[in-house]
Design goal:
Layout (H helix, E strand, L loop, with lengths): L1 H7 L4 H11 L1 H28 L20 H27 L14 H22 L1
Helix pairs in contact: 1-3, 2-3, 4-5
Length: 136
């Protein structure tokens, strides 16, 4: 699981976007699919290999505490992140709107991009989670 997590950090939307820019979307999606399959295979091989050698940590289930949610410093960091992420999204959208009038920073990108959608989904998920927490 740990190696799959580290390996999957290579697979991010900006990487796919860069590959699409240089090689086209067909090749970029092919590379993304190959990376995804290799991530899954690596995780399975490592899990099976460590299990066969008896090197899998024991007591992992006991490491999970009974209390899944608590109001502590991480809660307040998450609340703060919701506001920081929303602010960053707003500033980005304001910058993109301001630079689309023929300025030197106009890169020909119009509309909503993949990164905007992913960021919007993350902000919405965090906001919905906060609302549901306070309603419960």
């Amino acid at each position: 699981g740990l190696m799959a997590f580290i390996y999957s950090d290579l697979m991010v939307p900006p990487l796919v976007k860069v590959n699409a820019r240089y090689y086209g979307w067909k090749v970029a999606l092919y590379i993304a699919a190959i990376m995804y399959v290799s991530i899954v295979c690596t995780a399975l091989i490592l899990d099976i290999g460590f299990g066969a050698l008896g090197m899998t940590p024991e007591g992992a289930a006991s490491a999970v505490t009974e209390e899944q949610f608590a109001i502590d410093y991480t809660f307040f960091f998450n609340v703060g992140f919701v506001f920081v992420a929303a602010l960053m999204l707003w500033l980005h959208r304001r910058h993109v709107a301001g630079s689309s009038h023929g300025s030197a920073h106009d890169h020909g990108e119009g509309g909503i991009g993949v990164q905007d959608v992913v960021t919007g989904i993350a902000v919405a998920a965090l906001a919905i989670g906060l609302v549901l927490f306070f309603l419960a």
